[in-house]
Amino acid sequence: MAALPLPLPRPHRDDVRIAAVGLLGGLALWGLGLTTQQSRPVGGAWLLVPLVLMAGLELLRRTAPQPALIAATLLLIADQFTAGNLITVLMFTDIMYAAVVYGTPAAARRIPVTTALITIGMTLGFLAWWHTADALLIGVATGLVAFTPAATGVLVRNHREAADAARLRAEQTALLAEMDRTQAVAAERARMARELHDMVANHLSAIAIHSTAALSLDDPRTTREALTVIRENSVDGLAEMRRLIGILRDTADDNGEPAAAPTLDGLPALVAGARTNGLDVRLDDARPEDGQKLPAPVELAAYRIVQESLTNALKHASPGTVSVSVTQRADALCIRVTSPYGERSEGPRAPGSGAGLVGMRERTALLGGSFEAGPEPAPDVPGGKIWDVRAQLPVVPADEGAEF
């Protein structure tokens, strides 16, 4: 069974208008008796044949520009044997222009060169034949009919391609900007999650443990002590939340000063709060008093790592001493927190989510440091194991523009 021929694409509505206007204009000139040539072999109404066919080719100026140009060239040659119609010539120039603008890139490069060579050839040929300056008029007419519309088409096509390229670059730039914005939002949300977890988890864990103790023990003195600890942690947690809200709002505090991020100078108070919550904590701050000043992101990350380690010890550590060690070297700040590891004695506990270790690891990675956490053997500790948290934070962050 023979395959059905593919239907021709429908002509653009603007091409239909151009063809209709051209045909009506050519008929009007013919009706008025206006022609372009005299004493031609074929006279009378024969000039209407190239006119009508050229108008029909105008319907193909976008859908089939190159075949339309070849046929239009043959019709223009045929028109030279009739009295001629100006509209036929004008429609040919439009088809020449459309072949460059809507044709293939190869055709757009080839047609202007071809028409330029034809113009030069026609000028030199008639000049050699006639030996008069009138031959130059033939060259000018050929250039106006062939080369000029082709050159104009090149200019328009280049302008459109430049506009399309600029539009594509703008779209790509907008896409990259949106990707950067999305990544920035995700990074900011992760930073806020770390801050919120590290600030509140410690206080809420203490509140959960002591409230459980107050509910489970029928001892007024123990209940009063537990409620005192609960109140202190509630107040501290509320203060931390207000500080975070102040950071998010980017506003000053009640005294007109911006809310300051925690530093390592706050470690003694942090350890004292952990002792109040029931931990036996020993702090070994080996930083030299005249040591170099640490970058703010390093101090904040170190403070949060110690804070989260103490929170985890409060929730999960076995009875025993928790050790916090901070050592400052020339190239890095070293943090180590150890706590007894093993079966915990019966008593109130707070659930864990695992987000603390993830947050500590993320903070260390953002600074280009190293982080390790896990059980280690320790023969001198009851149970024979400790939970060891180690972090090394470079003094110069790997990405100083990162948010922590």
Task: Please provide a written account of the structure.
By secondary structure, this protein is α+β, with helices and mostly antiparallel strands. It folds into two domains: 13-174, no CATH class; 260-343 and 355-404, Histidine kinase-like ATPase, C-terminal domain (Heat Shock Protein 90). The chain is built from ten helices and five strands; from the N terminus they run H-H-H-H-H-H-H-H-E-H-E-E-H-E-E. It has a five-stranded mixed beta sheet, covered by helices on one side. A hairpin with a 7-residue loop joins strand 4 (370-377) and strand 5. The chain is rod-shaped, with a radius of gyration of 44 Å. The two termini are 72 Å apart. 28% of the residues are buried.
Write a brief caption for the model:
This protein is an alpha+beta fold and 404 residues long. It has ten helices and five strands; from the N terminus they run ααααααααβαββαββ. It has a five-stranded mixed beta sheet with strand order 1-2-3-5-4, with helices on one face.
Mean pLDDT over the residues: 81
CA radius of gyration is 44 Å
How many domains?
2
- Lateral strand order in the biggest sheet: 1-2-3-5-4
Give the oligomeric state of the chains in this entry, treating copies of one chain as homo and distinct chains as hetero. Answer: single chain
Helix content: 55-70%
Write the layout of secondary structure elements.
Layout: H1 13-31, H2 48-58, H3 65-79, H4 86-102, H5 105-130, H6 135-216, H7 220-249, H8 267-276, E1 280-285, H9 296-316, E2 321-328, E3 332-340, H10 355-366, E4 370-377, E5 385-394
Parallel strand pairs: 1-2
Antiparallel strand pairs: 2-3, 3-5, 4-5
